[in-house]
Amino acid sequence: MKKINKIVITILCFFISIAWFGETDIESYMPLKEGSIWEYEALNFKNDNVTRKSRLTVINMSPRDFDGENVIPVKYVWKVKEIGDPTSNTFYFYFFVKTNNSIYSIAKQMEKDIEPKKLNTPLTYLKNPIKKDNKWKDVNAESTIEGIEDTVTVPAGSFKCVRVKQSLDNGDIITVWYAKDIGRIKQLYQSKENLLIQLLEYKK
Hints:
By secondary structure, this protein is mostly beta strands. It has a single domain, classed as YmcC-like fold. It is built from 1 helix and 13 strands. The longest helix is centred in the first third of the chain and has 21 residues, at 2-22. It is globular. It starts with a helix and ends with a strand. Mean pLDDT is 88; it is low at 2-22.
């Protein structure tokens, strides 16, 4: 009986170790370290005509508490250049939660807001396992990891990426390419007017 128990325990430990070590640290694909900065170029286009050129700066801020959870605020600063018009600036924050299994946003704070406002429908950006055809469902979106070895070339260079497609209930589609240890490399938002975002520079 003791021998059988030892065998059972050994088998259980083996499978636990596989589950533990086989799980990807999703933060390596979407870094949330305080002080990390990404610079992007952004192009709005309709029928292949560019309607707006922008520069997007993304900054990870200091962790804080919100609604009983530890969150990481991420600041998005837009310098928008309308074709033929002066440049205008705007910013907002999203507040992210990281678990062992996923990274998702729970709140947003616009420039005019004094405090963040909880999202009606949190959105999951990444979820384990990081493997092709992994799917997850949020209230207003369904996401699929469509590729794990895409080679993507942007102004910052060429990277091997995980590709995630998010299909929103309103018919819009967001495709995001994430590179390990860097984060979002490229994003294509397909709607009535499309938006393409590509990495220019990353500072840890």
